């Protein structure tokens, strides 16, 4: 489905496939920036550097769990020391140095870790061992995209690949991933632990990937980047509508991916992100409240991003190999081109959704199709589509389905039904801003009748 501002149709679909608060580096990215002693710039810097530092350590030492723990401790040390001493001249080099020292100390702490250290040393050629120390103070090399590919390991299922990369590099917590996969948090924690052990014990290891190996893993990498951006643009939980750090990181990594490959779906995904990110300035009000697409001030949209995204989409479509990301980007472009909701080319959007369902019939794509159907054929047609969609167990407890029904019932003139479903949707969402929006919708309908 497209990543849209419509509150009933903007969530991504994650295919079905009791962690401690500071279990991994991704958890640290959620907690360290909250330190009141750190200014906003330093908080943002730590969040941005965390995946890059983790990627560098994994490239060197091939120990995914150990490197995660070491990066966590380095980020905590930075949060404590930088508040008073200031940011060092080479912040990434500082973090790599501290994390390496923590990793070395941990390896030496018991016999098992010492054996692992011997294995790590044996895997790294001598000339690389000499060169490793030299780049601790340099920021030029960015291994984070490489780690995305490495974590999408063939020894893991697609679901485990997606969950692991979302956790380690996407900045999502175990609880957030568990909600997205519709499983208990404890279950997801176990899955992540098994995935890390599988990676660590794999005979393939964290060796550099060939072009063909990267191409084979590309679909999963694209899917993960899509999910990371969606979580950043439309946070599933918390009190804010967006998490700018996640959206920005997803765009940065997808730009790197587009430099490596001009595959039409790579270009399509980057176009989709840019066309969607262009609307972010208008998505929230002065108090952080959610503003849906039809109520946004479109003069606030970022025109350069729209122009860049449109150019990328045209470049992708010119290759004549349409895919789900290109189709979603085309839908986003139609929204961005329209002066308002009434003048939007809904018949064309409906046609694109129909094509998307042929290629990728996810529940959320079907939900978006139902809303587009209502915009073209009327609310009754949309409600009938929702009735059919409600049979899908993956949406049994989805607040988005309830919110969409409330919206269409309001358009159909069923005041009581609209109020009931808006309230029901509000009870089911974990995002505070979205909950407030849905409750306000229910109150508005109740007041206006």
Biggest sheet strand order reads 1-2
How many strand segments? Answer: 2
Compute the number of helices: 21
Strand content: under 5%
Give average pLDDT, whole number: 79
Question: Could you name the ranges where pLDDT drops below 50 across 5 or more consecutive residues?
Answer: 6-34, 126-140
Summarize this structure as a short list of keywords or feature phrases.
449 residues, mainly alpha, two-stranded parallel ribbon, 21 helices, 2 strands
Q: Could you explain the architecture of this structure?
A:
The chain has 21 helices and two strands. Helix 18 runs antiparallel to helix 19. 67% of the residues lie in helices and 1% in strands. It is mainly alpha-helical and 449 residues long.
Tell me briefly what this model is.
The protein has about 450 residues and is mainly alpha-helical. It has helices at about 25-30, 40-60, 65-85, 90-110, 110-125, 125-130, 145-150, 160-170, 175-180, 185-200, 210-235, 245-260, 265-275, 305-315, 325-335, 345-360, 365-375, 380-390, 400-410, 415-430, 430-449, and strands at about 235-240, 430. About 50% of the residues are buried.
Give a topology summary:
Elements: H1 25-31, H2 40-61, H3 64-85, H4 91-108, H5 111-123, H6 126-132, H7 144-151, H8 158-168, H9 174-181, H10 185-201, H11 211-233, E1 237-238, H12 244-260, H13 264-277, H14 303-317, H15 324-337, H16 346-359, H17 363-377, H18 379-389, H19 399-412, H20 415-428, E2 430-431, H21 432-448
Helix pairs in contact: 1-2, 1-3, 2-3, 2-4, 2-7, 3-4, 4-5, 8-10, 8-11, 9-10, 11-12, 11-13, 12-13, 13-14, 13-15, 14-15, 15-16, 16-17, 17-18, 18-19, 19-20, 20-21
